[in-house]
């Protein structure tokens, strides 16, 4: 086999410049990715996300323990109330402080989910109607799903039942979008992309995959909602005879965010080409992308928080078994190139630092749950301080 030269931050940065040189200026958007066990050191799955959000918003890291719920009880999401389930898993979430849902997170079963805003041809005035946010669907998938596929089933069922909608910011009512998701566990991953209540999903068993703020599933659909093809044909977005391409049919005509997704895809391919991708390459990936894409805190949509998870191939995600537990790293602060990633492992009686959460006495009332709201205009972003007691945790 021909020896591959080592990948360095310098040549990766040069690689970004080459990729982007023929494209328009890079869009401001999030990045979510996964590298499967055949490309990683030790066969573990590595998952991660950068979350870009409005500048006037705090993103906090919160822990919710597993819980049992009374039959017939309800759960209040950001805008609407839905039926609660009997049992919910313990979750660690990185979330805008004003909303109930989350941008990214993990549960004690070894499931991780990150979401992306996408803009589709089905968007319209009706998107302002308060339903479930994509971030609510993400949290519900983590609280109720024991595997990546079961989380997929939960999210798509709730999407079809309740729909998605409502402002995705409490200070920018016009911020409305549909959602895509990357869902991973210790064995596989799923990409789920939506347009209104329609959806398609792609199963990822090997290699790597990433999503940004554009639809990426073309003809390689493993599952889909009933009627998605008919909706595209009736709208004139598919001729009904050629092979159905979901992204071509439903991506908004003015969507220009494919360049960022393609760049991330090529960088993942380069870093994982030797089958030795690890936490080191993961942080290098973030550092390199941040030189071009990550918006600093003075930007209108800065990178508010970042997450990296190593999902152990020989563990169950929560440290109860004999195998290695999965470990989840969060910045709990903006701008990953200036932040420290702080580890969290699900263990019995786990606690996290209160410094990763919005302080109770500075919250103001709003649509978010758990007493959460955004900070006052002009208020600086709060610091995150890790604790050292117990197993690795925030």
Produce the secondary structure layout.
Layout: H1 9-20, E1 31-35, E2 45-52, E3 59-64, E4 67-68, E5 74-76, E6 81-83, E7 87-88, E8 91-96, E9 104-107, E10 112-118, H2 134-144, H3 148-162, E11 178-184, E12 189-195, E13 198-204, E14 208-211, E15 223-224, H4 228-234, H5 246-250, H6 258-271, H7 279-292, E16 303-311, E17 327-330, E18 342-344
Antiparallel strand pairs: 1-2, 1-14, 2-16, 3-8, 4-7, 5-6, 8-9, 9-10, 10-11, 11-12, 12-13, 13-15, 16-17, 17-18
Describe the overall structure.
The structure is a single chain. By secondary structure, this protein is an alpha+beta fold. The protein has a single domain (9-362), classed as Penicillin V Acylase, Chain A. Helix content is 20%, strand content 23%. The protein has seven helices and 18 strands. The chain has helices spanning 9-20, 134-144, 148-162, 228-234, 246-250, 258-271, 279-292; strands at 31-35, 45-52, 59-64, 67-68, 74-76, 81-83, 87-88, 91-96, 104-107, 112-118, 178-184, 189-195, 198-204, 208-211, 223-224, 303-311, 327-330, 342-344. The protein has an eight-stranded antiparallel β-sheet, with helices on one face. A six-stranded antiparallel β-sheet has the order 14-1-2-16-17-18, covered by helices on one side. Strands 4-7 form a two-stranded antiparallel sheet. A hairpin with a 2-residue loop joins strand 12 and strand 13 (198-204). Helix 2 crosses helix 3. The longest helix has 15 residues, at 148-162. It is globular. The protein starts with 8 loop residues before the first helix and ends in a 50-residue tail after the last strand.
């Amino acid at each position: 086999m021909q020896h591959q030269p080592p990948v360095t931050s310098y040549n990766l940065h040069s690689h970004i410049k080459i990729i982007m040189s023929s494209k328009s200026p890079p869009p401001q958007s999030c990045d979510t990715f996964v590298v499967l066990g055949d490309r990683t050191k030790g066969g573990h799955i590595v998952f991660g996300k950068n979350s870009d959000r409005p500048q006037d918003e705090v993103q906090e890291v919160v822990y919710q323990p597993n819980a049992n719920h009374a039959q017939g009880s309800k759960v209040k999401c950001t805008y609407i109330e839905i039926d609660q389930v009997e049992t919910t898993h313990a979750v660690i979430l990185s979330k805008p402080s004003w909303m109930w849902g989350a941008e990214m997170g993990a549960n004690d079963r070894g499931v991780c989910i990150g979401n992306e805003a996408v803009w589709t041809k089905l968007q319209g005035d009706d998107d302002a109607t308060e339903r479930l946010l994509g971030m609510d669907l993400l949290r519900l998938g983590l609280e109720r799903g024991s595997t990546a596929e079961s989380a997929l089933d939960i999210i798509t069922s709730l999407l079809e039942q309740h729909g998605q909608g409502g402002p995705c910011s409490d200070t920018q009512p016009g911020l409305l979008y549909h959602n895509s998701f990357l869902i991973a566990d210790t064995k596989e991953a799923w990409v789920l992309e939506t347009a209104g209540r329609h959806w398609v999903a792609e199963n990822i068993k090997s290699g790597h995959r990433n999503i940004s703020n554009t639809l990426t599933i073309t003809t390689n659909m493993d599952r889909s909602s009933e009627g998605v093809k008919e909706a595209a044909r009736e709208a004139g977005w598919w001729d009904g005879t050629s092979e159905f391409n979901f992204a071509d049919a439903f991506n908004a005509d003015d969507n220009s965010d494919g360049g960022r997704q393609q760049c991330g895809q090529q960088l993942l391919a380069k870093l994982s080409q030797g089958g030795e991708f690890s936490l080191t390459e993961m942080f290098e990936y973030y550092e390199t992308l941040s030189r071009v894409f990550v918006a600093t805190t003075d930007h209108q949509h800065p990178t508010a928080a970042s997450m990296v998870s190593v999902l152990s191939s020989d563990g169950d995600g929560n440290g109860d078994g004999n195998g290695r537990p999965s470990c989840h790293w969060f910045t709990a602060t903006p701008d990953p190139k200036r932040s420290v990633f702080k580890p969290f492992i699900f263990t019995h009686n786990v606690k996290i630092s209160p410094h990763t959460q919005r302080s109770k006495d500075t919250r103001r009332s709003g649509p978010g749950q758990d007493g959460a709201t955004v900070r006052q205009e002009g208020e600086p972003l709060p610091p995150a301080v890790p604790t050292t007691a117990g197993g690795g945790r925030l």
